[in-house]
Write a structure and sequence with these properties.
Blueprint lengths: L9 E3 L2 E3 L4 H39 L8 H10 L3 H11 L5 H10 L5 H26 L2 H13 L1 H6 L6 H21 L2 H15 L7 H17 L2 H26 L13 H13 L9 H21 L1 H24 L13 H21 L4 H26 L6 H11 L5 E4 L2 H11 L14 E2 L5 E4 L12 E6 L4 H4 L8 E7 L2 E6 L1
Parallel strand pairs: 3-5, 3-6
Antiparallel strand pairs: 1-2, 4-5, 6-8, 7-8
């Protein structure tokens, strides 16, 4: 006997149906529920495969890598007690202290090179999971999975997943700052406001150029409000909430903001813009000189695809303007109007969002192909296959051509094997002194705030920084460790009349013997 529903409406998808046999509705409901469950299980399986691939690629990149110059600065700060850590970072570092503070607690569980680098791997994997969550909340499972896959294979993200620097941490914080900011624009709830303020403040206190995130968030909020047509009612709570991290950020900005800068920051050319876009998507590998045009052509084609998708899809347009166009224009303008500020690491936090933009672009172009009587599935599969091949090629190129290891560990091993007991090892550069002490004596051996007496190595050698060196005694051998780019006669005044010989090179480190 067939039953009928006369009194109530039943919601199915986006339709309201009346007078439908209950049995038919039940069968349809069960069919749709089963299909949804199968899709969910498939989605979970694909996500697990993506996670496994991400972990394998990131861990594989860690093998046989000692800490280099910048990383040794990170762990030198992080190994100090929290109160001294803040003072040390304020005195010697252009970046705020929050990243170093979380690394401090990570170091409490171990101090091996591998364990230290795994900190960044941990944040990179959490970033991938967060990106999937963001994509699913804002779009759908397919977009979330595709964006996660692109990020999992991104060579630039893989590289910084193995570096004891703040960039994987920044990617994680940026996703959650953006997520809660998006929610705040939609629901204006207290929870969204707190989440946005907390994660934005954490981001600002983790990197010297982190104010660029504020540019992104204000751009996104403006575009969001414009699209909704209720500009002030949406922007008012957003501005009030963002005032909190800005006010909290001001003390550091006043104290240290004027010192944010480094020799590697430049005034960019248009080619620098193309090269930066290539790096954050396809990695740090180098083409042979005769093929540098290939990478630039590739990024031009990718940008062309994003522009085509932006014309058709508002989500692509808003994300591309917020995370690519405006930040690039802003840093470009600052670099010429105020002081050089361009470097690819300034844009590192945008890497997962670029993965999302590319995922949306691929899906949109596949839909466009369907409208032109092409097979959507074939186009989608072809585009996904092409991006996978390009990412893996970029990863291979990065692994085989890029290196900025300073070989502190190898230099320390050489000194321990060749220097006689009781010899003075003079390290004129302060940061090189920190690094050599880390490997010759041990983690936490240097307090940058209290460089006084020479440190004693395990082989009874004395390591002297620039501030404590005296005139060399007659007939006494010294060893010097210095970085490339430093002139001996300028940096090592006490030895300018001595004979310097037996120089051994460890990438950017030089070890010399003085008689």
């Amino acid at each position: 006997m067939i039953q009928y529903n006369f009194g109530n409406q039943v919601e199915l998808g986006h339709c309201w149906l009346d007078f439908i046999p209950v049995k038919v509705l039940n069968e349809e409901y069960i069919r749709m529920k089963t299909k949804a469950a199968n899709l969910f299980n498939l989605g979970v399986l694909v996500l697990l495969v993506i996670l496994a691939a991400a972990v394998v690629l990131r861990v594989a990149a860690l093998q046989n890598q000692s800490l280099w110059y910048d990383e040794l600065q990170s762990v030198t700060h992080a190994s100090l007690p929290i109160d001294k850590l803040v003072l040390s970072v304020t005195e010697f570092d252009p970046h705020p202290p929050l990243y170093y503070m979380q690394l401090h607690y990570w170091l409490s569980l171990g101090s091996s090179d591998l364990w230290i680098k795994i900190n960044a791997t941990f944040w990179s994997i959490l970033t991938l999971i967060s990106l999937y969550y963001l994509g699913k909340k804002l779009f759908d499972t397919r977009t979330a999975l595709l964006a996660s896959m692109i990020f999992a294979l991104n060579p630039f993200a893989i590289h910084y997943a193995g570096q004891a620097r703040m960039y994987s941490w920044l990617m994680f914080l940026a996703i959650w700052s953006f997520y809660f900011t998006h929610r705040l624009l939609e629901d204006r709830s207290l929870g969204s406001a707190i989440g946005s303020a907390v994660f934005t403040t954490a981001f600002l206190y983790s990197q010297g150029g982190a104010f660029l995130l504020l540019v992104v968030l204000f751009t996104y909020a403006g575009l969001f409000a414009y699209g909704k047509g209720h500009k002030w009612s949406i922007l008012k709570p957003f501005i009030i909430v963002q005032a909190v991290p800005i006010i909290l950020y001001l003390p550091w900005l006043i104290l240290r903001g004027q010192n944010v800068g480094a020799g590697h920051l430049v005034e960019p050319s248009l080619l620098d813009v193309l090269d930066t876009a290539f790096i954050i998507q396809f990695g740090l590998g180098s083409f042979p000189d005769s093929f540098t045009w290939l990478g630039r052509l590739l990024i031009i084609l990718l940008m062309a695809g994003i522009i085509i998708a932006s014309v058709r899809n508002n989500s692509v347009r808003v994300l591309a303007i917020s995370f690519l166009l405006v930040p690039f224009l802003f840093v470009f303008g600052v670099s010429y109007a105020i002081r050089p500020f361009w470097h690819y690491r300034v844009f590192a936090f945008a890497t997962p969002f670029l993965s999302m933009i590319i995922a949306l672009t691929i899906i949109e172009i596949a839909s466009l192909a369907q409208q032109r009587s092409l097979y959507k599935r074939a186009v989608l599969s072809g585009l996904v296959g092409a991006i996978i091949i390009l990412l893996l090629a970029g990863l291979y190129l990065q692994q085989t051509t890029f290196s900025y290891r300073w070989d502190f560990y190898d230099a320390a091993q050489f000194i321990e094997a060749n220097v006689e007991e009781g010899t003075i090892i003079y390290v004129p550069n302060e940061r090189v002194y920190w690094g050599m002490s880390w490997y010759l004596i041990g983690p936490g051996s240097v307090d940058p705030l209290e460089i006084g007496l020479p440190l004693i190595t395990n082989t009874e050698n004395r390591i002297k920084p620039r501030k404590t060196i005296g005139r060399p005694k007659d007939n006494e051998d010294y060893w010097i460790v210095y970085r490339s780019g430093e002139e001996i006669v300028d940096r090592i005044k006490p030895f300018e009349q001595q004979q310097i010989e037996n120089i051994d090179v460890f990438n950017k480190l030089f070890v010399a013997r003085v008689k």
